[in-house]
Amino acid sequence: MSLLQVTTDNRGDWYVLWVCGELDLVTSPRVRQHVHDAVAQGRRRLVLDLSAVRFCDSSGVGVLIAARRLLSSCGGEFRLILPADGGVGAAGAAGGVSGTAVSGGAHVNRVLAALGVRRLFAVYADVDDATSGTAEPLSA
């Protein structure tokens, strides 16, 4: 059984990666590869939905920082979905990653805040807000 599932979708100009499971030393290279593949395909607006990530270590944080840097270097935009309450969010609601509700997102939010890097990211409550063009990011 895989500890990580990644599914993708297009939402207008945005390419969405729904990540479910654990983002750690073993699994984070898969997320990094998905981001690199998206950029190689010419996608410049990327949303990473982490609302169903129940664990994230420093290698996972490294992938997020590298993804932000990569998109920024090519004039793109990078957004995260991290619901503060840790609910399933868009992954479960929009059919991105199926399965039972997990308590995620809030853990990643706490890890990013503890490391002092949360402010680096444009964070939204759900995919609809992140891709609408009208919603403001959540405050750090």
Describe the protein in words.
The protein is an alpha/beta fold and 140 residues long. 34% of the residues lie in helices and 27% in strands. It has helices spanning 28-40, 58-73, 90-93, 106-114, 127-132, and strands spanning 4-11, 14-23, 45-56, 77-81, 122-124. The chain has a five-stranded mixed beta sheet with strand order 1-2-3-4-5, with helices on both faces. Strand 3, helix 2 and strand 4 form a beta-alpha-beta unit. Helix 1 packs parallel to helix 2 (58-73). The chain starts with a strand and ends in an 8-residue tail after the last helix. 43% of the residues are buried. Mean pLDDT is 86; it is low at 86-102.
Summarize this entry quickly:
The protein has one domain (4-132): STAS domain (Transcription Regulator spoIIAA).
- CATH topology category name: Transcription Regulator spoIIAA
Q: Which value, in Å, is the CA radius of gyration? A: 13 Å
Tally of contiguous helical segments:
5
Helical content, roughly? 25-40%
* Oligomeric state, counting identical vs distinct chains: single chain
What would you call the structural class?
Answer: alpha/beta
The CATH superfamily is identified as STAS domain
- What is the molecular shape? globular
Query: How many β strands by DSSP?
Result: 5
